Amino acid sequence: MSTKAAVILAAGKGVRMRSGLSKVLHRICGKELVRHVVDAAKGAGYDRFVVIVSPTNHAAVRDLLTDTVDYAVQSDTLGTGHAVLQAKDLLRGVGTVAVLNGDVPLVRPETLRSLLEHHEARDACATLLTASIDMPGLGRVVRDTDGTIAEIVEERDADESTKAIGEVNVGSYCFNGPWLWDALEKVKPSDGGEYYLPAVVATAVQEGRPPESIEASDPSEALGINDRVQLAEAETILRERIRLHWMKDGVTMPDPSTVYIDADVSLGQDSSILPNTHIRGATSIAERCEIGPNTIVDDARIGSECRVWSSVVEGSELEASVSVGPFTHVRPGSHIAEGVVLGNFAEVNRSTVGRNSKSAHFSYLGDAEVGDDVNIGAGTVTVNYDGVNKQTTRIGDGAFIGCDTMLVAPVEVGEGAQTAAGAVVTKDVPPDALAVGVPARIVDKKKKCSSDGGEDSS
Asked: I need a surface site. Which of 178, 188, 226, 391 has the fewest CB within 10 A?
């Protein structure tokens, strides 16, 4: 049975976002707000998770988080205390229950781990995460002269002297589970009929067990997202964290402020990320690569010692020592083998390109299977769409495709075969054969006709 569970509050309407998308599904650094919080709780050592959702965002949040968490629906918006109560039946018997806000994405795993460790070491009924920051909207932590917490005063209820207190309640808590459920049942509704979670602090104080607390070392962890201005602010902070992490881990960024790296990206040591580069999604880049400048890499896997500059690579895999660009687009579903050169103005779509093959300039390879050591001449196009279906082109190892060749799929060029410049290939070319003309015909390679001039693309 789980002994440590986290409840993530994700049922808020987010009216100030002015969006048809649930607030907790907005992204910073390529990752939804609620997923940042769930992942932080996982990193802190919690082994069970209950996400509180609303009837309107339940399906969308479930689509995102799937069955990695449990769900409880808050049908009526009656405050944070009421929201937490929706998890009671799911978490009976759990010893420690954290409560986290799904719209506070900058809280770090190590902070939540420290909160948990402090809570359990002190055998507290409640432990709060606080921060020293001037952040409007957050409750102020009022302490007695001996430093113990006396109460949490929400900003709307605070007088000027209370508003001047520099310590705020972040909204991340650890509770003794059985104590929490009893305390929530005692919370009285506000004038607006809502039940607020911070009210349990008063219960703890009345019982002579004032809450424990720790202070976040980084005050930005208190930033909650209520509108798109705060969304952008959080993105700026998190991007800087990400850049610093990778630079300290051995990645070079000559101008870090112009580099954008998403939260799920992985980078290898001694790689360089050059200016105006965006690395998105779950991209992984191995060691000793040079990425950029002016490059987008999205959900791709890039092997060691690759160079990608002024180009777009998305949803594809590059093996080691591949060179891409400038001005090349590797589209989703492509696999580029070791040593391949894709030069300027090349496009590869749903295709495989074999080891040491070259398409150095001005070509389109769509739905193609290209073998090893193939030369693709300038202006080559695989004509893959017949107006109804996408068709496949197969090019064997060692083939030489002349400049301005049109390969009208479905078609196969055999191993060691050649096409002459300007050939329009509508039928299969046998191995070691030469195809010339429009439409292409097979001729004897030994007869040197003037139209056999395929140009090496290197």
From this structure: 188
Q: Give residue-wise pLDDT tens across range 403-441.
A: 999 999 999 999 999 999 999 999 999 999 999 999 999
Cα 445 to Cα 433: distance, rounded to the nearest angstrom: 7
CA–CA distances in Å: residue 435 to residues 213, 353, 374: 78, 21, 16
Note the helical H segments in 66-176: 80-85, 109-122, 160-163
CA distance 350 to 213: 54
Would the pTM count as exceeding 0.90?
yes
Which region among 49-63, 98-112, 144-158 has the lowest average model confidence (pLDDT)?
144-158
Question: Do 30 and 266 form a contact (C-beta atoms < 8 A)?
Answer: no
How far does the chain reach from its first CA to its final CA, in angstroms?
A: 63
Query: What one-character-per-residue DSSP string does 200-214 give?
Result: HHHHHHHTT-PPEEE
Q: Which residues have CB under 8 Å from 38's CB, separation 6+? A: 6, 8, 49, 51, 65, 68, 69
Instruction: Specify the residue for token string 């020592």.
Output: 321
Please give the positions annotated as active site: 361
SS3 label, residue 63: helix
pLDDT tens, residue by residue, 95-126: 999 999 999 999 999 999 999 999 999 999 99
